[in-house]
Amino acid sequence: MQGSRILLIVGGGIAAFKIPELIRMIRREGGSVVPVLTPAGGQFVTPLTLSALAEAPCHTELFDLTRESEMGHIQLSRAADLLVVAPATADLLARMAAGMADDLASTLLLATDKPVLAAPATNLRMWQHPATQRNVETLENDGIRLVGPDEGDMACGEYGPGRMAEPEAILAAIRAALGRDKPLRLPPEAAISLPSRRLAGRHVIVTSGPTHEPIDPVRYIANRSSGAQGAAVAAALRDLGARVSFVTGPAEVPPPAGVEVTAVQTAREMRAAVEAALPADAAVMAAAVADWHVANASSGKLKKDGSGRLPELQFAENPDILAWISQLAQGRPALVVGFAAETDAVLDNAAHKRRRKGCDWILANDVSPETGIMGGVENAVTLITGAGAESWPRLSKAEVAQRLAERIAEALSPARGQAEERA
Question: What pTM value is reported for the model?
Fold first, then answer.
């Protein structure tokens, strides 16, 4: 990054406390930083801190008579090689999308002719709100790059997507935006979203969450799936421009904004919803579907009768949704991706499952209790295709989803035709 000039706009979010470290990292690599602090950002970090670390004046006011006598905001916006907005709050994203110019930060962003990189940082609900998603889509269409947001715990006590990317990821995105590094060489931590919408015009079905199979009106068979991985996959595909049909069981994690949601309870309902969503270019079967349902489920609550006798439950197999869609004679998606949650002989069992079901790819993971993966915030998967197995490091579920979405976009690209990696 030697000689690169970064104009760093600091928004008003708690994530601003990470910005001093980002400035240190940029300067350590030979880049220079000119900080711009919004009034809201000044509630979290001081101009003196940013100025001291950058060894450059921290700009805060649009109507600075000395600088504006020389059209200082124009000079600032044009002298940099890259403008970085971090944290980019929901308010800043909205102002950028609307083209507002009533303070120094928004004026610089509107007046620049240089690349812009934004690191969103919002509350979970604010990030998922349709207005924010529209603003993000507008910004991406305008050529603005985004890095993050990450998924995790937030200062407000909620959990989900909205955390600002870590300084290491922002630094990697800065390198990519400057052309000093290629996106394919970014480390896994750099969850960068580029403006190209590589899946625009494509339709992808994603299933997610557990299914609930009734025993009686108040009891059911289920598993510990939170639905976090499926929701993250749907969001990542949406961010690449796909139209996503999201079929979800009763998950703990809410569906992402900007996808077509069908909520179901049972495996049979999920099978019907997937069929109704066809045709599709790809299908990602991330749901943890119960293998059996109770064929003699009671219409009334089962009660103890004092005799010590246990109720006789008769089990029947549920439809195998992954095998069914993989083996469709007509209307089969060009790419079908399954998941294999295993507790022993993980890779052998997953590879056998891929061949038996007939899907193109399968993501295998070890869900033994000691891994903390089932219902947790991270995942460690191995992507198994007809070409072999590729183990990914332990990542957040959002990062796993982004990797998978990029691979799906590559497989569906016109240059490669239909899913080259099918067996």
Answer: 0.56
